[in-house]
Amino acid sequence: MHDGRFDPSGFYEFNLTGGIIRTRTGERVAILSEDVLCSLVAAAARDGDLTPLRRLGELLGEHVLGGLDRPASVLSPEAVLGHASAVTSLFGWGRLTFERWGSALVIVLRDRPELDEDELGAAALLGGMFSEISQRQVSCVPTGDSKFIMVDFEVAETVWGWFKDGADLPAIVGMLETKRAS
Amino acid sequence: MSKREDRLRSLLDKVRAKRPEERLTRAADALDRIRTASGTTAAVQQQASPPVPAQAEPPTVPPTPVPRSFPSQVSSSPLPEPPTSPVVESPTRYSSQPPRVERPLSVEPRARSIRPSSGAPPAGTPPRRPESIRPQSVAPTGQPVVYATDPPEFPRPKTFGDLLELTLSLRPR
């Protein structure tokens, strides 16, 4: 199993003369206040286009993959979580943990910026992040209490409908069953 | 006049001519002493020096010493440490392997198993608990005895890929 830990030192490079902040992979980033960020995300959610947040999640996922010496699929859940939670923290998106409810993997993201009431901004971010990490298209559907159930892209809309109809996480898991994709 | 008198007068004139400078020098010395003693220079300077136009006054507030704090030539080098130390606490199922600066997490992942229902509920209906089996004659407390129809244990994935396969294979019943 992979024992490498995420090394946060030197993650950011501050060019004070040029006024530029870059991550150690070279991409330029900017610091936003939470208020401004929330306004932007709320507007995007109203317009139904959360693509930029999903793209940001993919960038976070690229950082996670960059810290792994093997594909995430062959590593332990703890190893992947360690890197994913470190990257999430470094970008100020809160504390990331995993839960498993039956066969379902549930992502918990606490102390994150409060973006929109339905948590769709955080769902888009996590969906992009774990799609990049797993190299598959996944969706993270909000289920309340800062928890997001990870499901296949095709069933995300159904699960979201259950939650909007009042089903909580145990109920949602109870309405799902394992079926191998044909 | 004798040569000696001429010489004396010449010397006297020189001394008179030098006196104003000597006074200024003494005044300057006195000023320095006052500055050292009180630390208030501005008022003393105004008294000692003649008034000058405002544009010619030296600035009383020195400029901010930015260059010493931020060297302009090497500022592109990375700072030694990020300002924040990520702290990850995982009271739930999976503990992570945290960065060096983090606190260690709880080690043992505990499986929180759910008890799946035995039937297939129609989509969109509220959740159902497993059907209770109500023996008619053996419940000493009058409460129903509930039997699980499926074993509560779920296979524990060893890799993230296994976990991913499980969760992505979930479909509505």
Largest sheet of chain B at a glance? none
Residue share in helices of chain A?
40-55%
Helix content of chain B: 25-40%
Order of helices and strands of chain B: HHHHE
Termini of chain B, distance in Å? Answer: 135 Å
Largest interface, and how many residues on either side? A-B, 76 and 59 residues
Mean pLDDT of chain A: 90
Q: Beta-sheet strand percentage of chain A?
A: 15-25%
Q: Which runs of chain B of at least 5 residues are low in confidence (pLDDT < 50)?
A: 40-92, 98-121, 131-142
Largest sheet of chain A: 4 strands, antiparallel
Shape of chain B: rod-shaped
In angstroms, what is the radius of gyration of chain A?
Answer: 17 Å
Strand segment count of chain B: 1
Number of distinct helices of chain A: 6
Q: What topology, given as strand order, has the largest sheet of chain A?
A: 4-5-7-6
Overall strand count of chain A: 8
* Class computed from helices, strands and strand pairing of chain A: alpha+beta
- Whole-Å distance between the termini of chain A? 31 Å
Mean pLDDT of chain B: 55
How would you summarize what this structure contains?
The complex is a heterodimer of chains A (182) and B (173). With 182 residues, chain A is α+β, with helices and mostly antiparallel strands. Chain A is 41% helix and 21% strand.
Structural summary, described in words:
The complex is a heterodimer of chains A (182) and B (173). Chain A is an alpha+beta fold. Chain A is built from six helices and eight strands; from the N terminus they run βββαααββαββααβ. Chain A has helices spanning 34-47, 51-66, 77-90, 120-134, 156-164, 169-174, and strands spanning 12-15, 20-23, 28-29, 95-101, 104-110, 138-142, 147-152, 176-178. In chain A, strands 4-5-7-6 form a four-stranded antiparallel beta sheet, sandwiched between helices. Chain A has a three-stranded antiparallel beta sheet with strand order 1-2-3, with no helix packed on it. In chain A, a hairpin with a 4-residue loop joins β6 (138-142) and β7 (147-152). In chain A, α2 crosses α3 (77-90) and α2 (51-66) runs parallel beside α4 (120-134). Chain A is globular and about 55 Å long. The model of chain A has no long low-confidence stretch (mean pLDDT 90). With 173 residues, chain B is mainly α. Helices cover 32% and strands 2% of the residues of chain B. Chain B is built from four helices and one strand; from the N terminus they run ααααβ. Chain B has helices spanning 3-38, 42-48, 66-69, 160-168, and one strand at residues 170-172. Chain B is rod-shaped and about 150 Å long. Chain B starts with a helix and ends with a strand. At the A-B interface, β1, α3, β4, β5 and β7 of A face α4 and β1 of B. β8 (176-178) of chain A pairs antiparallel with β1 of chain B.
